[in-house]
Amino acid sequence: MRSFNLLAVLLLASTAVIAQTAAAPNAPKAPVSFDLKAMDITVDPCTDFYQYACGGWRKANPIPADKSRYGRFNELDEYNRAVLREILEKAAAPGNHSAIEQKVGNFYAACMDEKTVNALGAKPLDPEFARIAKVASKADLIKQIAYMHSEAMPALFGFSAGPDMHDSTKTIANIGQGGLTLPDRDYYVKDDAKSKEIREKYLEHVTNMFKLLGESAENATADAKTVVDLETKLATNTMERVWMRDPKNRDNRRTVEELAKSAPNFDFTAYFVSTGAPKFQSLNVSTPQYFAKTNALLDTVPLADWKTYLRWKVLNSNAELLAEPFFLENFNFFDKYLSGAQEAEARWKRCTTMTDQALGEALGQLYVDKTFGKEGKERSLKMIQAIEKAMGKNIDGLEWMSEQTKKEAHKKLAAIVNNIGYPDKWRDYSTVTIKRNDLIGNERRASIFERRRNWNKIDKPTDKTEWSMSPPTVNAYYRGAMNDINFPAGILQPPFFSRDVDDAVNFGAIGVVIGHELSHGFDDQGRKFDAVGNLRDWWTAEDGKEFESRADCFVNQYGNYVAVKDDKGEVKLNGKLTLGENTADNGGLRIAYMAAMDMLGDGVKGKIQGFDAAQRFFIGYGQIWCQNMTDQEARKRAITDPHSAGEYRVNGVVSNSSEFREAFGCKAGQPMVRENACRVW
Predict the structure, then answer these.
(1) Residue at 358 is within a domain
(2) Number of folded domains that form the chain
(3) Does residue 6 register a pLDDT over 90?
């Protein structure tokens, strides 16, 4: 889920150079950039460019049994995890190790100690259940929720810190809706056949989990019904994802006293004291409606039901760390039934991921030392600067935008900060205790460290150098409040960037990713933040209306794409939910192409492997989005994911591109040539 500050994530994308290091034995091979075998040249590129660029890859790469979706991002992630595995197994082995190696090695060793984990069953949670059992009043309930939040366990709502929307140099407290277990509110409130089926399966799952705790079938069924009924009430009070996309909706400054008066049953004054967070006078309430509506539930829902709900939140949030019966029950519902994976990932994969999530910048240091050098940063920065230059030219050429708004857009573009590879200052985990025989304790202490570190920012200057992803992550992102673009080292390698291919391919892959992230600063959310990251309308009224009209074209285009069609019905993409990513995809492709053509100059002429530079640019772009996905995963993402599926991130974008039409000689009326092409940037 997105944090309260604006964070636009590419969900697979980016640029640079990484050393091709040896990975663990039997590790997957490093991905390849511009792969002729990945193509299906029997298909006309003007009819279905996605199949043309990716047909061979999709046929040769069926979804692995432990995945619900497999694409080029996953391919690179699997390779990176093999590199991390080698690092962690060496760190976990006996010998002389640095403090960082010892810490990540002990975490990994505790996770890999399946025998100890299974022997403990659910006993590590007994102290938490005992605390909940002692709750005897509404005041106790509020304190218990505060305690759970301080221990990094979710319940009822979320409390964090983030940049002030109106003064991004300051960090303030944020509070907002939360408390659901299913992926989205729609799973609880929609009345279609599939949603009803999911709720029935969810009820069975919660029942099974309570049975594993030792409850009788009768009690487990009753407790599960209590949980589902209460979460359904919370879901009806929860604001929709599309509504949450607009930062203006989330901008609600309140004093603590005002918040307390608006929802008196929450007793926020006592809550904030009980969390142990620093004292503050005001905060941002992202969803005041949620608290106003949920306030009554603290009176109407019996205390015993709230205690059952809290027990469930403790159990569910720790399920993946418990003995095998709990882990498998959790997997069978969330990963197998909801997403379509057929088997759980190997334990080493899960433990590598857990270590990265818990101690990301500690493990990240070891990863960077092994794989990423200064050359990577320098070459990436040159490409970014070329694309920023193209973005400036693109802004100047917009016929629909006034000179006044263009001037402000240039200010914002010039102020964007480029973060490449890894942070300049590493996070210090020296206060986090990690033991070789305490998986849940390790995860909890690492999570508490992050929770405290976040809360301690309240009413302090915003640290705009801080990263939101660990260096090994295969992803990239833009932050509106920081006005920065960020490319972790984990994604700065093939198929996104390679020293072994020509610039046209790299610009089509990495370059479009860079352009994508830059465009996020000017999408339907990003455009509402100014050059310093403050929520401010820097547009003329006329230009704002023109932007909205052009954005509506994308809403209609992508809203008509079918995500999945099966015996439960047809589900289309949500054009409003995916608007920001679709705007960034289309804008990113255009400015990356401009930059590529400017840089290549006379090098545009001539062919390599039978394709000219323009064609190689587009094929390079298409091939980073090759993927296969289960129907279950496609259905879930259509509801929850602001990104379109790979097919539409390719065909939806190139069908709007006159440059693509020219590169492949497409004619009016062909599927890859939209009659009324959409364009914002």
Answers:
(1) no
(2) 1
(3) no
- Residue-wise pLDDT tens digits, 100-153: 999 999 999 999 999 999 999 999 999 999 999 999 999 999 999 999 999 999
Range of the domain at 149: 123-321
Q: How far apart are the first and last CA of the chain?
A: 27
On the question of pLDDT at 1 being above 60, the answer is no
Per DSSP (E only), the strands in 183-313 are 253-255, 282-285
User: DSSP characters for 48-105?
Assistant: -HHHHHHHHHHHH-PPPTT-SEEEHHHHHHHHHHHHHHHHHHHHHSSS---HHHHHHH
Using omega within 30 degrees of 0 as the cis cutoff, is the peptide bond preceding 278 cis?
A: no
Residue of 361, 517, 581, 641 with catalytic role: 517
Please check the confidence at residue 389 and state whether its pLDDT lies above 70.
yes
Half-sphere exposure of residue 582: CA atoms within 13 angstroms, side-chain side: 32
| Dist. CA 303–CA 141, nearest whole Å | 8
For residue 588, is it within any domain?
no
> Would you call 356 a catalytic residue per the annotation?
no
Q: Is residue 164 part of a domain?
A: yes
Q: Which of 48, 78, 356, 585 is catalytic?
A: 585
- Residues 29-48 pLDDT 10s: 889 999 999 999 999 999 99
Q: Which residue has tokens 């802004």? A: 395
Residue tagged 């075998």 (tokens): 37
Residue reference for tokens 């889920």? 1
Percent of the chain with pLDDT over 70: 95
Instruction: Band the pLDDT of 266: cuts 50, 70, 90.
Output: very high
Task: Quote the tokens at residue 308.
Answer: 């059952």
CA distances from 647 to 11, 14, 622, 632 (A): 14, 19, 9, 17
- DSSP strands (E only) in 343-461: 417-421
**Predicted local distance difference test score (pLDDT) of residue 21:** 37
Task: Tell whether the model's pLDDT for residue 564 goes beyond 90.
Answer: yes
Distance CA 402, CA 543 (A): 7
* Separation CA 422–CA 248 (nearest Å): 31
Cα(255)–Cα(284) distance, integer angstroms: 8
Pairing of strands 282-285, 253-255: antiparallel
Residue 297 sits in a domain of what CATH number? 1.10.1380.10
- Fill in the DSSP letter of residue 548: H
Domain annotation covers residue 311: yes
For residue 601, name the pLDDT band (cuts at 50, 70, 90).
Answer: confident
- Residue 376 pLDDT grade (very low, low, confident, very high; cuts 50, 70, 90): low
C-alpha pair distances (Å), 475 with each of 77, 286, 517, 558, 651: 10, 26, 11, 23, 21
Q: Look up 361 and say whether it is catalytic.
A: no
- Collapsed DSSP state (helix, strand, coil) of residue 4: coil
CA distance 361 to 374: 18
Confidence band of 22 (pLDDT split at 50, 70, 90)? very low
